[in-house]
Amino acid sequence: MKKLKINTSLEPMDEWTYESYVSDYIFENVCIEQNLDNVTIDGCKFSKCQFKDCSFSFMECMDIIFDHCEFENVHFNQCSLSRVHFISCRISGMEFSQSLMQDTLFQLCKGHYCDFGGSTFKDCMFDINDLTGSGFVQCDFKKTSFDKCILNSTEWFNTKLKELDFSSCEIENIAVSSDKLTGVVVNSSQALEFVKLLGIVVRD
């Protein structure tokens, strides 16, 4: 992943003031409850912030850190995220549909039932997240990794799993398209899950 380009002398901002371009600010313990469509955010850090009932449609985010933030009913639709880090965030139920994510990191996040449908991931990392029940339908993955993630009951329909490595993850009750399994990497016990998906009966 590419290194973040965060300004080392960020200015504090204690509330959100609507602007079409926001750069080089740090937001701490701020609650944001308004739509921020068509906004560009560059080189900012959000620490222990709350986002409630927000729409971030068509937003462009570059070099952003979300640290210990909580997102409730938040929609990142058709957004561009480049070098964005979500660290120890609560993102359950978030919608990231039809978005482009490049060099983006999700680490130590709780994200049950997130919707990543139709999104493209390039050089992204999912590191030790709980993504139970989330949807990755019709997604495109390029050089993206999943390490020690909980992916139980996730859906991957019409998504090519080639070169995705799930060997360190939990994938119980995962739902995939049988014709998109070529090239996926799993461990020996996980292989039985995929065999069942193909309708093959294994007898001891």
TrEMBL record:
Domain of life, per lineage: Bacteria
Span of the secretion signal?
none
Q: Do you know which SUPFAM superfamilies this protein is assigned to?
A: Pentapeptide repeat-like
Record's Gene3D superfamilies?
Answer: E3 ubiquitin-protein ligase SopA
Q: Which Pfam families match?
A: Pentapeptide_4
Q: Please state what the protein is called.
A: Pentapeptide repeat-containing protein
What phylogenetic lineage does the species belong to?
Bacteria, Bacillati, Bacillota, Erysipelotrichia, Erysipelotrichales
